[in-house]
Structure formats: structure tokens, C-alpha cells
UniProtKB/TrEMBL annotation:
Residues 1-23, 69-79 have a biased composition (Polar residues). The lineage of its organism: Eukaryota, Fungi, Dikarya, Ascomycota, Pezizomycotina. Residues 1-79 are annotated as: Disordered. Residues 37-61 have a biased composition (Low complexity). This is Uncharacterized protein. It comes from the Eukaryota.
Length: 79
């Protein structure tokens, strides 16, 4: 079973490229994760989004702007 850069094990659910050239990847981290069905996508315009297994999310617009939402909070901060 592969591990991510945090050392967490996961199984691939699906990945691919849509008809607009945008890439996506979905992973299953199991029932112990806050967000077991994590995914990320990256777009042809340079933007990307991560929905992480700990419940956090991260968006980068590809132009220097980004937004991180921590795992246990509805508050988001501009980075």
C-alpha cells in the first residue's frame, strides 16, 4: 500500500484527466481518517485544490493567491 508525504497509507480510488485537460486523483485513507475520501485536482490554468485526509483543504489559484482551511475549523485564512 503506498504512503503519502505525511506517511499515511492509502489506496487509489480513481485518477485521470477530464476533457478540459484538468487532472484529478482520488484516494481512500480508510475509516480512521477524518476525511477518508480525499482528492486533489490540478487545472491547466495552474490552479490546484487539495481535500486532505485530516479534513483540511488547500486551494492555490496559480497566480500567487492561496487559501487554507484547517481541519477542525470553519475559518479560512488567506496565505
Amino acid at each position: 500500500m503506498p504512503t503519502d508525504n505525511q506517511g499515511s497509507s492509502y489506496e487509489y480510488k480513481s485518477s485521470g484527466t477530464n476533457n478540459q485537460g484538468n487532472h484529478y486523483c482520488s484516494r481512500d485513507y480508510g475509516s480512521g481518517a477524518s476525511n477518508p475520501n480525499s482528492y486533489h485536482y490540478s487545472n491547466t490554468n495552474g490552479s490546484y485544490y487539495y481535500s486532505n485526509p485530516n479534513g483540511s483543504t488547500y486551494y492555490n489559484n496559480g497566480q500567487g493567491g492561496s487559501k487554507y482551511t484547517p481541519p477542525s475549523s470553519g475559518n479560512s485564512g488567506k496565505k
